[in-house]
Amino acid sequence: MQQTSIKDKKKVAKSWTDPLDDPNFDAGQYIDGFFPTEPTSESVSVELYKRITTVSEKVRDAEEAVKVITADIKTLDLGKKNLIQTMIVFRRLDMLGM
């Protein structure tokens, strides 16, 4: 049974020449290293999530408004259809001489 010392483990952990090959690679930290004055990817993600949530709420409100408007239109359309049918019936009755 072979024992590895702490020094050997540290050498293995630091032997990565390309940070992308490191098994403990963190993409967020890597990208943030290139843009130190910009907001972190986590804060950008939080801001994006807030905006998406706000847009989703507005979409729900708009959908509800559209449903109310279309319900009114459907009612008016049905009334128009009934009125036209009634006019046709009266016209036919008039033609029959009743």
UniProtKB/TrEMBL annotation:
Residue stretches making up the Vps53 N-terminal domain: 43-96
UniProt xrefs under InterPro entries: Vps53, Vps53_N
Region annotation (Disordered) ranges: 1-21
GO biological process, one term: retrograde transport, endosome to Golgi
Example of a GO cellular component annotation carried by this entry: GARP complex
PANTHER family: VACUOLAR PROTEIN SORTING-ASSOCIATED PROTEIN 53 HOMOLOG (PTHR12820:SF0), VACUOLAR SORTING PROTEIN 53 (PTHR12820)
Name the record gives this protein: Vps53 N-terminal domain-containing protein
